[in-house]
Design a protein that fits this description.
Blueprint: H1 6-9, H2 30-46, H3 52-78, H4 85-115, H5 122-151
């Protein structure tokens, strides 16, 4: 008969703290999420925003997600989670919700890219919007990957 003791209860993997965050999946996705989201914001800001309602949402989602992800990364680096299981739930819910918001922003950015093809200063704005669309979809993918990696961990 196998005994159930403290070793059986601690079979859950510990949440990383410090530099181990950058070596542990899915937490290693946080830095690329921040960097790609920053590129989305920079590229949209570099265009002449012809559709402020669409691209305003893209900038809002990218900037807000970038800041919240940065705070989450800092909390992991500093060990604020204290290895609580609630942090996994919070992390998964945040990344799942952000993936949905980023998908809406990526689709709106793709629409803005299509509309900027024949506008004023078309070649430069079209190229910047295309790059912003690429990074928006890439960031969406990273957030989805992060959310599901935590869920299946």
């Amino acid at each position: 008969m196998a005994s159930v003791g403290p070793s059986a209860a601690s079979s859950q993997p510990a949440l990383p703290s410090g530099p181990a965050v950058f070596k542990t999946i899915p937490y290693a996705f946080i830095l690329p999420e921040i960097l790609c989201g920053t590129w989305v914001w920079i590229l949209v800001a570099a265009t002449s925003v012809s559709l402020p309602l669409l691209q305003g949402w893209v900038m809002y989602v990218s900037l807000t997600s970038c800041l919240i992800s940065l705070l989450l990364l800092l909390s992991y680096l500093l060990g604020f989670h204290r290895n609580s299981e609630n942090w996994k739930v919070l992390d998964s819910l945040y990344h799942g919700a952000t993936a949905i918001l980023y998908m809406s922003a990526a689709v709106l950015q793709a629409n803005a890219t299509i509309n900027s093809e024949f506008g004023a200063n078309a070649p430069l704005n079209y190229q910047l919007n295309t790059a912003a669309s690429f990074f928006a979809f890439l960031t969406t993918f990273l957030y989805i990957l992060h959310a599901f990696s935590i869920y299946y961990q």
